[in-house]
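step 3/5: co-fold with NG1
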Amino acid sequence: MAVTLRDVYGAEAGVQRARYEAALDLFTRTYGPGEVRFFRAPGRVNLIGEHTDYNHGFVMPVALDKDILLLARPRPDNVVRLSNVETDYPAFSFNIDQDIPPGPAGDWGNYARGAAQELARRLAWRLRGFDGLVVAEPPYGVPRGVGLSSSSAVTVVVALTLAILNDWHADAVTMAQLCSQAEWYVGTRGGIMDQFISLLGQRVHALFLDCRPDAQGGYETEQVPLPQGYSLLIADSGVRHENARGEYNHRVAACRAGVKLLQARYPGITHLRDVQDVAWEDLEPRLPEETTVGQLSEQGIDLGDIPGLTARTPLKVRARCRHVWTENLRVEEAVVALRDADVATLGRLLNEAHASARDDYEISCEELEHLVATAREVDGVVGARLTGAGWGGCIVALVRADAVNALEAHLSTAYAAKTGKSTSIFACRSAPGAGECSFE
Ligand code: NG1
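step 4/5: write tokens
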């Protein structure tokens, strides 16, 4: 069921209406007059729980008020035609099928192809396509490639549009699972966090998500209220790591190697989460500080279908697993702190999570370190950490509402002075999850 712009954007509904109307105008000029429907999917900031999702661990993201819009008109055939308001994202089309040939690596259309292919495989009936226009430009769109999940928002919005236009009304959990599978199409072995929060987000709440499915394939979730009188401020380092996807897959591989090595002692385990109740001291001696894919293979350990690994790929198994194991504990503690509105504890956990991401998971960089350290200098900041996959992208700071302006000013001045780069900063206003929406 479509919700109104007011339901989604609250007091911002007026400016959003102007954005939607401008998009409608462009849609009509591109595809001609007729019926148009509006779909949206938000990006996210992860408050805590980094690189735990693909280990079946705990995460706690928040849906952003920055989103990706898709204006769509159903077609009688199985063709999807998509164009983008931003001309550096070229238009493309494809036929919906259970095996859709991918475009070149890095092609934004692959997120749409992945979503359509996954839906076609699940539903196994002939799906009708649509003519669509994607709208994600600043300041209301999800910034691209900065760790705020713009790619998942595209996948989610395309999957949701296709599902609704074909009268398939799946629950959010089914849809989120489908979308995370769809993203494997582009060659990453990511987890389920981004798609879940994009679909299940709620205003002024973080989503606690246990990424381990239960026996029925369901997931435990809890909407946890964000603390009153505090804001989440996001600052973008402007750094984009070229090989972030390759590094990401190496982290996935190190965790998988850890599981395979631990299986000698704990035979039934499939993910690091399955040893969460074992003391770290018992796990540590079984995990080598450093090994390689080739050495593991000589021991009969096969890491499966992770793209981009060679025999010489080094894997720091012990430190990577330690991060995941300790991060899960921090998320559990953070849920309790939020339930109790214990901001000081939450701030400490954010800081500890950052240290673990930097030292054990090695996903930080000089610019993120600078932003985090600078943020913590401001009175009223209770915690700050890198957020998202890492190697650049953004930090998130938990700050007293009356200190937001001071933090913004300090960060932009100090960051420019230190790095010569500018940082874009915005407050994270939480938003509802993805769906169809209408003007009234
Ligand atoms: P971002 O920051 O959007 O690249 C990635 C993964 C998440 C999660 C985080 C790290 C995808 C689509 N997203 O997010 O599942 O693993 O890194 O916590 O792979």
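step 5/5: annotate
The chain has 13 helices and 15 strands.
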